Structures are given as structure tokens and as C-alpha cells.
């Protein structure tokens, strides 16, 4: 249960207001963007701020339609949101008046097709998967930031989407919680075989999680390079994968690609001429 996603020559243009004349102008956010995501793959996406990462995710989620080009999932055009895809955002989007368990059940109610008992059981299973069985009866305000994000992940996984789309889901968390949740996510992905597309600003996070890291360039946004990551993440809890020489080499490779994006245009041109 996982899906192949293809983006072909995707462009996205927004109408924005100019600073001076307040006239509407076209702003090209994405142009000529090609990307293939294999079924069951874990792909991370990095790029400078504003390069269009969230825009790409919104398009795959079906929350927006591209101005040009095509997006398909298992060969079928993406025309809107669907139960085959689930999105986890940076902000914990939990219902404050429902417990952790009831928040997960709520998503299953919306999905339909399960009895109350089945929904309860499914919610328990996924809360256990993210290590929150003991906190099922707590309300969001009684949970830490990391716990709330784990409930959001449990909720997304509970209706068994083929594709999990994550937009900087750990951006608001402290470093230790973040690393723990990264390890949990890898374990969950290995168990479920879900296709994961994960956006992050953090190079270490991108290298630790991704089988491939897609590096985007900005203005207009497109895929600049794809870095294949071949790290042994087994037993990641006991072994500090992030401290290995291989990890550092991948990190440097991605860092260099991103660094080039921050070089001012006139210096890039000069480098080109030289
Ligand atoms: N609805 C919109 N209307 C106008 N412009 C938009 C809209 N959505 C995004 N943009 C613009 O498109 C560009 C890409 O935005 P997007 O949020 O995809 O970037 P991002 O790479 O996710 O940024 P960040 O890393 O800062 O979160 C930005 O310049 C943004 O201002």
C-alpha cells in the first residue's frame, strides 16, 4: 500500500500585489519542475526559504492545482485531495476539546466505513505505534509539543494513507524530541511501507530521514539536484548514525548544493564567466 508520484514540467504562478503600484502581477513560484517519487520511498525536500517546497506539497496533496504541467499518482491525475494522501503540518492541528484518542477517532469518523469499536481499536493501535498509549485520554493542552505532533502523525497514519506528506512537522520541536521523532518515523515507515514526502529546513534531518534528498533552487522553484542517501539506519537508537563519516559526507554534499543557492546572482555570474 504505497503509491508512485510523478510531477512533469510543473509550473505554479500566483497573482501578487506589487509594493509600489499595488497592481496585480504574476509571480512564478515553480517552473519546469520534474520529480519522480517511487512507491514506498522516503523522500526529503530541502531548499532556500520561499523556493516553493510547500507549494509542491500542496499540489501533491491536491489542495491546489498547477498553472501548467501534470501531477499523477499511480498514473492517475491528481485533481483534488483524497484519502490516499494525508498531510501533517508544522502546527499541531488537533481539536482542543477532544482527547488524543478522540482526535484520532475523529479522522476515522470522517473517513467512514468503520464501526465505533473498530475506530476505537484502530486509534489505540496507532497511538501505540507512536508511543502514546498511556496518554490516550489526555486533552491537547495536557500534552507536550512533541506528543501533540505524535498524535497528529498517529491520526494521519490511522486511516492508512498510501502517501504521507509532511510539511516541516518537527520545525517547532526541541532538538532531542526532534531526533527521537525522526527515529520513530523511520521505524514506522519501515513497518508500514508508506510513501513519505518530508519537507524540512534542517539538512541533518533531511539526510537522516531520506533515502533521497531533493534539493530545490528558488526563483523560480525547481529541482536542482537529487542526492541518494545510503545510510544504515538499523538500530538507530543505539548507534549514533549522525556521528558517522558517511553522514558527514552526505551532509556536506547537501550543504554545498544549498550554499550555492545563497550566493548573490552577480557572484554566480562572475563564477560562471571565470
Ligand atoms: N497563495 C499564494 N499567493 C501568492 N504567493 C504565494 C502563495 N503561496 C505561496 N506564494 C509564494 O510562492 C513562493 C513559494 O512559497 P512556498 O510557501 O511554497 O515556499 P517554501 O519553500 O515552502 O518556503 P519556506 O521554506 O519559507 O516555508 C513564495 O515566494 C511565496 O511568497
Describe the structure.
- This protein is of the alpha/beta class and 274 residues long.
- Helix content is 37%, strand content 24%.
- The protein is built from 8 helices and 10 strands.
- A 6-stranded mixed beta sheet has the order 6-7-8-3-9-10, sandwiched between helices.
- Strand 1 and strand 2 form a beta hairpin.
- It is globular and about 55 Å long.
- Bound molecules: adenosine-5'-triphosphate.
- Residues 14, 16, 27, 29, 47, 49-55 line the site of adenosine-5'-triphosphate.
- It comes from Nocardioides jiangxiensis.
What's the shape?
A: globular
> Percent helix among the residues?
25-40%
Portion in beta strands: 15-25%
Multimerization state: single chain
Structural class: alpha/beta
Specify Rg, calculated over alpha carbons: 20 Å
Poorly predicted spans: 268-274
Give the bound compounds. Answer: adenosine-5'-triphosphate
What does the largest sheet look like?
Answer: 6 strands, mixed
Counted beta strands: 10
Protein name: ABC transporter ATP-binding protein
Keywords: ATP-binding, Nucleotide-binding, Transport
InterPro entries: AAA+_ATPase (IPR003593), ABC_transporter-like_ATP-bd (IPR003439), ABC_transporter-like_CS (IPR017871), ABC_transporter_ATP-bind (IPR050166), P-loop_NTPase (IPR027417)
GO molecular function: ATP binding
Ordered list of secondary-structure elements with their pairings:
Layout: E1 5-17, E2 24-37, E3 42-46, H1 53-61, E4 68-73, E5 76-77, E6 85-88, H2 100-111, H3 116-129, H4 145-158, E7 163-167, H5 175-192, E8 195-199, H6 203-209, E9 212-217, E10 222-228, H7 245-262, H8 265-273
Parallel strand pairs: 3-8, 3-9, 6-7, 7-8
Antiparallel strand pairs: 1-2, 1-4, 4-5, 9-10
Helix pairs in contact: 2-3, 2-4, 3-4, 6-7
The structure holds adenosine-5'-triphosphate.
Protein name: ABC transporter ATP-binding protein
Domain ABC transporter: 5-243
Pfam family, one: ABC_tran
Amino acid at each position: 500500500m504505497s503509491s508512485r508520484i510523478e510531477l512533469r514540467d510543473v509550473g505554479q504562478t500566483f497573482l501578487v500585489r506589487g509594493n509600489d503600484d499595488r497592481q496585480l502581477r504574476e509571480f512564478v513560484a515553480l517552473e519546469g519542475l520534474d520529480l519522480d517519487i517511487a512507491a514506498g520511498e522516503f523522500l526529503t525536500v530541502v531548499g532556500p526559504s520561499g523556493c516553493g517546497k510547500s507549494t509542491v506539497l500542496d499540489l501533491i496533496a491536491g489542495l491546489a492545482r498547477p498553472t501548467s504541467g501534470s501531477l499523477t499518482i499511480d498514473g492517475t491525475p491528481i485533481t483534488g485531495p483524497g484519502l490516499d494522501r494525508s498531510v501533517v503540518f508544522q502546527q499541531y492541528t488537533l481539536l482542543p476539546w477532544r482527547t488524543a484518542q478522540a482526535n484520532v477517532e475523529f479522522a476515522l469518523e470522517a473517513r467512514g466505513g468503520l464501526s465505533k469499536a473498530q475506530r476505537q481499536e484502530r486509534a489505540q493501535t496507532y497511538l501505540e505505534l507512536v508511543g502514546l498509549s498511556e496518554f490516550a485520554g489526555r486533552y491537547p493542552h495536557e500534552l507536550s509539543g512533541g506528543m501533540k505532533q505524535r498524535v497528529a502523525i498517529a491520526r494521519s497514519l490511522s486511516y492508512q494513507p498510501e502517501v504521507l506528506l509532511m510539511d516541516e512537522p518537527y520545525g517547532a520541536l526541541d532538538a532531542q524530541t526532534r531526533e527521537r521523532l525522526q527515529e520513530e518515523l523511520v521505524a514506522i515507515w519501515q513497518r508500514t511501507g508508506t510513501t513519505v514526502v518530508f519537507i524540512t529546513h534542517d539538512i541533518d534531518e533531511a539526510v537522516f530521514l531520506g533515502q533521497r534528498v531533493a534539493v530545490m533552487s528558488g526563483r523560480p522553484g525547481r529541482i536542482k539536484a537529487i542526492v541518494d542517501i545510503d545510510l544504515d539506519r538499523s538500530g538507530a537508537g543505539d548507534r549514533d548514525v549522525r556521528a558517522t563519516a558517511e553522514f558527514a559526507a552526505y551532509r556536506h554534499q547537501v550543504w554545498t548544493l544549498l550554499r550555492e543557492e545563497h550566493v548573490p546572482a552577480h557572484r554566480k555570474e562572475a563564477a560562471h564567466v571565470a
